[in-house]
Amino acid sequence: MTIKPLIILPDPVLRQVSAPIETVNDELKTLADDMLETMYDAPGIGLAAIQVGIPKRMLVIDLSREGEDKAPQVFINPEILAFSDDRSTYEEGCLSIPAYYAEVERPARITVKHVGLDGKEHLVEADGLLATCLQHEIDHLNGVLFIDHISRLKREMVIKRFTKAAKAKI
């Protein structure tokens, strides 16, 4: 397994819409392993392929807590089929926007259709942190960042700060 470099804001790659995956093969399984290793190393609880510069519709999640056995989940071509009307708010962060967190309100429950590494279609009814994490990562596949769900003023401040930091590294 290989730890891949993370794409960091303001890199325009993060705004790309990811392409559907046609087949589940060994190369894709290796990518999933690499993404999980990268996510664990960061550390984080979710990672979309675009965050490692690969515009494919795949994401990985592991909501296990420290001290618990790892529980990795891989979602290929995830699609949200249904949202609940009730909402929940979580403080979200992002491996591509390090050390920045904000309260984001999203639907409390969702139904997601996806393909697993077994190549079969699965349906997941998610609530709580899993629902929030799936929505966050699926947003990435559509070129949307969690800061797009906060006020324009806060979003512009975050983008400005990360743009300035990126220029300082050049």
Annotation field: number of helices: 3
What count of domains describes the coordinates?
Answer: 1
Task: Give the total of beta strands.
Answer: 7
Q: Helix proportion of residues, in percent?
A: 25-40%
The biggest sheet, with number of strands, parallel, antiparallel or mixed sense and barrel status, is:
5 strands, antiparallel
Q: Given the helix and strand composition, which structural class is it?
A: alpha+beta
The CATH topology annotation reads as Peptide Deformylase
Distance between the termini: 29 Å
Strand order of the largest sheet: 1-2-3-6-7
User: Segments where pLDDT lies below 50 for 5+ residues?
Assistant: none
Give the overall silhouette: globular
Q: Helix-strand pattern, N to C?
A: HEEEEEEEHH
EC number: 3.5.1.88
Binding site for Fe cation: 94, 136, 140
Cofactor: Fe(2+)
Catalytic activity: N-terminal N-formyl-L-methionyl-[peptide] + H2O = N-terminal L-methionyl-[peptide] + formate
Secondary-structure blueprint of this entry?
Elements: H1 26-41, E1 46-48, E2 58-61, E3 73-83, E4 87-94, E5 97-107, E6 109-115, E7 121-127, H2 128-141, H3 152-169
Antiparallel strand pairs: 1-2, 2-3, 3-6, 4-5, 6-7
